[in-house]
Amino acid sequence: MRSRESSPAPASPGHSPQERTSAKTRRLSLVNGLFEQRALIVLAVVVVIFSVLSDTFLTVPNLITMTKHVAINAVIALGMLLVILRGGIDLSVGSIVGLTAVAAGELLEGLDLGFAGLVAYPPVWGVIALCVAVGMLVGLVNGIVITRFKVAPFIATFAMLYVARGIALLISGGSTYPDLTGDPELGNTGFEVIGDGHLFGLPLAIWIMALLAFAITLVLTRTPFGRWLYAAGGNERAAELSGVPIDRVKTAVYVISGACAALAGLVVTSELNAATPLAGETYELNAITAVILGGAALSGGRGTVRGTLVGAFVIGFLSDGLILVGVSPFWQTIIKGAVLVVAVALDQAQRRFQRRGAAVSAMAAGRRPG
């Protein structure tokens, strides 16, 4: 009695298994390429839609104004990028903006040194340095809580969101510092230049965004810290075994994120020429959306400065475009939340396609003759 052996399914005429696998790999690569460029695609769609709906959307003055608004979110998002590359999250950045605003207001209006019977009026450069130091201190606390006490980043920074906002409210008494122009006799004038100053025809805020983006690009691509960051975000255990200082890198990214949020807080406060403890509310939503929409992975190890900037432009142009065409602020909040959900969904879809592409590539490699 003859045993029946299973025979392979007949191949399609004119196409070998290797050719079919190669074609599938190319299709998956194409789809993955579209996912990688999703922020640019969305930005193009946003520009086209609002250009049709409004005659003033693409005018040069409006583009400069919108880019200035983008710069504030982009500065925060660049700090958030480093945190997400490490596989973390920072929900406290919006509250750091508010705390920085209050710190700037307190310093510019005169810091009462009750123990010495004096009122200190630091120069503007001193105000900037102290406010950035405040943001870095908050980031350092986040990093220590996460690394030393092993608190999940979401919980640690969510708690700091309330702590930093509460401190800002306590210092200010819930009130606003209405006039930060300073006094020439006290040597503390010129703070408004940060938000309203121009250099070569562009607002100073845009130059701050550009310089920060350039600096972070160099850090990520040309320094050991950048390599450590990608390695630790991609596979923490493997990075640790290869000698990466895991806890130092994790703490450093939260310190940098706090500094970036403080810098954005200074720009916002200077632009308004007033400080309020409620400044920066929901800014963390904008920053996270920009980073994820720009191609970064929530799990860490993947993301670029370029993608984050494009994501920030999407959020900024979308917000300003909705205002320009008269969309209700309530709908704007709903739309921003929906964009965040879509950004995360696209990130998950990209990861699935990348896994499929890796599997197909492995199959193709296994079929090659040895």
Descriptive notes:
- By secondary structure, this protein is mainly alpha-helical.
- Helices cover 71% and strands 3% of the residues.
- It has helices spanning 17-36, 38-53, 60-85, 93-109, 124-148, 153-172, 193-196, 204-222, 224-234, 236-241, 246-272, 283-293, 305-324, 329-367, and strands at 111-113, 118-120, 198-199, 202-203.
- The strands form 2 sheets. It has a two-stranded antiparallel sheet with strand order 1-2.
- A hairpin with a 4-residue loop joins β1 and β2.
- The protein starts with 16 loop residues before the first helix and ends with a helix.
Topology of helices and strands:
Blueprint: H1 17-36, H2 38-53, H3 60-85, H4 93-109, E1 111-113, E2 118-120, H5 124-148, H6 153-172, H7 193-196, E3 198-199, E4 202-203, H8 204-222, H9 224-234, H10 236-241, H11 246-272, H12 283-293, H13 305-324, H14 329-367
Antiparallel strand pairs: 1-2, 3-4
Helix pairs in contact: 1-14, 2-13, 3-8, 3-11, 3-12, 3-13, 4-5, 4-6, 4-11, 5-6, 5-11, 8-9, 12-13, 12-14
Distance between the termini: 37 Å
Going by helix content, strand content and strand pairing, the class is mainly alpha
Q: What's the order of the H and E elements?
A: HHHHEEHHHEEHHHHHHH
Q: Helicity range of the residues?
A: over 70%
Low-confidence stretches: 1-6
Number of helical segments with 4 or more residues: 14
Bulk shape: globular
Rg over CA atoms: 25 Å
Beta-strand percentage range: under 5%
The largest sheet, given as strand count, sense and whether it forms a barrel, is: 2 strands, antiparallel
Count of distinct strands = 4
> Order of strands in the sheet with the most strands?
1-2
* Average pLDDT, all residues: 88
